[in-house]
Each structure stands twice: as C-alpha cells, then as structure tokens.
Amino acid sequence: MTKTITITIYDVARQAGVSPSTVSRVMNSHEIVAPYTRQKVMQVMKELSYIPSMIAASMPRNRMNYIGLIIPDITNIFFSNIIRGIQDVCEKYGYNVLVVNSDDSQEKEGRYLKLLYSRRVDGVIMTVAGYREEKYSEEELSLMKKMHLVLIDREINGLATPIIKVDNFAGAYSAVKYLLSMGHKRIMYIAGIEGTKTNQERKKGYLTALKEVNINWQEEIVANFRLDTAYQKIIHHWPEFKNSNHLPSAIFAANDLMAIGALKAFAQLKVQVPQEVSIIGFDNIPFSDCTYPPLTTVSQPTYLMGEKAVDILMKAIEGKKSKKSIQLETELIQRDSVRRLED
Question: Which residues, given as ranges, of the chain have pLDDT below 50?
Fold first, then answer.
C-alpha cells in the first residue's frame, strides 16, 4: 500500500526559503509580503500541490477565518437569501461559513453556541430560536458576550449586541392600510410565534391600522410562522367562522409561509382567492409570485440583511467601530391575492 504524504506549511516554507508565518501571510493576501517573495511562495505551493489548512492560514492573525451561522429552521425559504448574502460577503472577506440548524430548539441552539465557541470561530451570526428571546441563562448570556455576535431578525433580551432587522411595525401597518384602502373591514390576523418581538411588532402594526379607522372587528389564529400549521388552522376554523357568520373578507398573515398555507387550505375548501377572501403575506420569499393567485406581500430585503450582518461582524473582528444595529425598510408588493370590495 502506498503511503500518502501530507505536504505542510513547513514544507512550503523550507523549499521557498522563508518562515512558516510568511507562507501564512501569502495565503491571507497580507500586504507586507514583498511581491517577489509572494510569487516565489505561490510557485512552491503550486509545485508541491499544497492545500492550505485552516489552522495554517490563521497563524499570523490568530484567526480561523470561519464564521458560524445559526439558523432556526433551514427548511424555511425565508432564510435562503439571508444565507446567500452572508456567504457572498464572507467570501469577499476570505471567510468560510459554518451553517447549523437549531430547529427552533432551545437545547440545540445552546449546544451549537458552545460548539462554535469551542471551535474558535471568529464570529457568529444568529437568528434566535423562536421561543428563546427571554429564556437565556446567565451562563449563555455570559458566553455570547465573549463572542463577536450579530443577530438577524430576532432580539435577545438582556444582551446588547448588534441586530439587523426590518421595521416590522411599519411593514404590517402598510399591509393592513392597503387592505383597508381596498374596502376590507373584517381583517383576520394569522400570527407567528407568540412572544417573539417579530410577531409582537407585526401584530401591533395590524391593530394600530384598525384602531385608526375605529374598526373593532378582530380575529386571530396562531400558526407559529409555519405553513402546515396555518393550513391546519384554516381547515379547522373556517367552517366555524362560516357557521357563526364571522367570516373575514381579508387575511393578513405574519409571514408568507402561513399565507401560502392558507391558500392551500382554501383550495381544498373550494374557497376562491381573492373573490371570496383576500390574502396578504409578509417576507416576499422566493416563489411567492408563483402561487395561485400570485401572493401580495410585504417584502424584506433579505439578501441585504445578510450583507449588513457580515459587514458589522467583520468590523467587530477587526476591532473597528460600527453601527450598533440597522433597521431596514420594507416594501409592499401588490400582486393578485387581494381584490377591491365594492361599496
């Protein structure tokens, strides 16, 4: 059996006649390396077919060039553009991304935080598990304070760390105002995870818009930001609403997945959208324009959220000052799932 020979940074340094730290600087595109030396080292790396290791590349800066990314639900398509934005910008900075899925689990999220800290990643970007905003132990908060950490979308009470989010109140308010402008007065809210600030702010926008025009009619079902739960709740409750003459003419769902779940339920119930009920979502996830009918929604700049999170994190890693938090604007996207009611 032929023994595999592993080429190390020390082999490259020996053949190039430089120190291992100089080889590491070349791998990290450090400006202080002379052009002749850089070219010589790169030629030796090519000749030896050397594949740089993570540890070797981190030698001169005491960095691993890895960012940890904790996502609460990797199957939620809302996060796809956020992840893409994070990866694209990390690549420009020369960083790799380790993605882990917490499944909206308190136990898993805590375990992954400890794992990423023990692996000495240079920083962590995280969207908090849905039920955790007020349920962090002192030990967990202490651990996060030791890390370069940036949050996306959901906050952590008791932790002063940068967060990238949209104006959830304004987005929800604009959605309900649009429904009101289209003649709707019986507007139901499909809620996300109760207790999260994301849901609280969107619900506040919903209620504020109704209160401004003195509408007291309200209805709410909780679907925890999940498509399947929204589908099941509509299937279960819609006949009850119909029998009690309490049918809404429009629905504002706190995210697109729940809106799409409602569309699926109405198709099964043979309720026509928007002829019998109008629906508006929140997020503008990919394919929300491919539903039938195409979904009217509130758009979040998800790719930009990912970009901004990395920019803030990199400044923290490099010891530079940056904005504490960034709040981005939403945009109402009008498609075909809302109709105007006749007077």
Answer: 1-2
From the list 134, 66, 131, the residue with the least C-alpha distance to 100 is 66
Distance of alpha carbon 309 from alpha carbon 95, whole angstroms: 14
pLDDT at 139: 84
Q: Do domains 66-166+302-328 and 168-299 have the same CATH topology?
A: yes
Rounded to whole angstroms, the Cα distance separating 304 from 121 reads 23
CATH assignment of 168-299? Answer: 3.40.50.2300
The pLDDT of residue 88 is 95
Residue type, 9: I
Pairwise CA distance, residues 334 & 175, whole Å: 10
CB 121 within 8 A of CB 146: no
- The CATH code belonging to domain 9-57 is 1.10.260.40
Specify the 3-state DSSP secondary structure of 164.
strand
Per residue in 102-141, pLDDT tens? 998 888 998 999 999 888 899 999 999 876 555 788 888 8
pLDDT for 5 equals 64
- Tokens 């991304």 found at: 97
122 DSSP 8-state letter: S
| Average pLDDT of the chain to the nearest whole number | 90
26-37 burial, b for 16+ CB within 10 Å, e for fewer? bbbeeeebeeeb
- The superfamily CATH assigns to domain 66-166+302-328 is Response regulator (3.40.50.2300)
Strand-pair partners of 229: none
What residue segments make up the domains of the chain, in order of their start? 9-57, 66-166+302-328, 168-299
pTM for the whole structure? 0.81
| pLDDT score for 1 | 44
- Residues 261, 228: Cα–Cα separation, whole Å: 6
What was the pLDDT predicted at 161? 92
